[in-house]
Amino acid sequence: MKTMHWLLATAAAGLALGAQAQPLQTCFKSKWGPDDQKGAVNNIGPSNVLDAAKLVKRGKAIRMGIETNSKTPAFAPRTFSITVLTPGQEYGGSLGETKTNYNDDIIMGWVGIGSQLDGLGHIGIDGLYYNCLKGSEIVTAGGLKKLGIEQVPAIATRGVILDMVGLTGKDPVPEGTAFNKKEIEAALKRQNLKPIGKGDVVIFYTGWTKLIGKDDKRYGSVEPGLGVDGANHLASLGVAAVGADTWGLEVLPFENPKHVFNVHQILLAQHGIHILENVTAEEAVKDGVYEGFFTLGPARVTGAVQAIINPIFVY
């Protein structure tokens, strides 16, 4: 009988809490109108490009992408493999009198492996995606009808690197370390950087990619990363994209275990801010450079959700 009273009391308390709880907001309209599919990249204008070009002082360009291969640790169940063929040239054959040879490759696997761009059609909230688009209307097995990677324009703007290794004094930054407004502002102050501006791309350096090939299990299951407060803060500043040298950008374990990939929802579904994963700024950090000209142009695969990328940072 006591058990029954406890169950009834628990149920009543649950109903009371439910009545007080705010309904989950799932639809977020774009400030750029009902036809917008570009999201926060709209914040990048000619002045962003011109100002970013002025940051180039040494004439050095670095790759921010890591290698993608069958051994690159990835979010399960993603896998990757490549097959190279020499069509029509089997057994030492060649083409024409010039004895031409050529190789072609076939990729079999998931796009979301290695350095990647998360498009606006990647993450939704209860079946709704950026700009209140319904998943039931835009998501098909043959590709996205809207929000595909082909909609991403050329990105050229100021890139801001936040050195969280330097801030925390730990290399790599331990898993579960959340980067919120306090940490973001502290990193900017420590690095003597101008404030993050509208249209900037922000990249967190955590040293996490150092684990690849050494502790893949740890690398792919947890990570330091952006917290909910930090995501909302960056969105309020009008950033165009946010990235990190981790496989999932946001902090894991999650700040709230019940809020699964909430940072992805805030950035992609709510604000149209593209996410860059597994992009490393280690070389620039070693050079003591934390801002420069960031550029990216993903392959325009129609209807794709993500893209394998290799951003270029020039300083």
Explain how this protein is built.
- Helix content is 23%, strand content 20%.
- It is of the alpha/beta class.
- It has one domain: Putative cyclase (Glucose Oxidase, domain 1, 3-Layer(bba) Sandwich), CATH 3.50.30.50.
- α5 packs across α7 and α7 packs parallel to α8.
- The longest helix has 19 residues.
- It starts with a helix and ends with a strand.
List the helices and strands and how they pair.
Elements: H1 2-20, H2 46-53, E1 61-63, E2 80-85, E3 104-109, E4 116-118, E5 128-129, E6 133-134, H3 135-138, E7 139-140, E8 143-144, E9 155-163, H4 164-168, E10 178-179, H5 181-190, E11 201-205, H6 216-219, E12 225-226, H7 228-237, E13 241-244, H8 262-270, E14 274-277, H9 282-286, E15 291-296, E16 306-308, E17 312-314
Helix pairs in contact: 5-7, 7-8
Summarize this, please?
A hairpin with a 3-residue loop joins β5 and β6 (133-134).
Helix content: 10-25%
Radius of gyration computed on alpha carbons:
22 Å
- Name the structural class: alpha/beta
| CATH-defined superfamily | Putative cyclase
Please give the CATH architecture: 3-Layer(bba) Sandwich
Strand content: 15-25%
Quick tags:
315 residues, alpha/beta, Glucose Oxidase, domain 1, 9-stranded mixed sheet
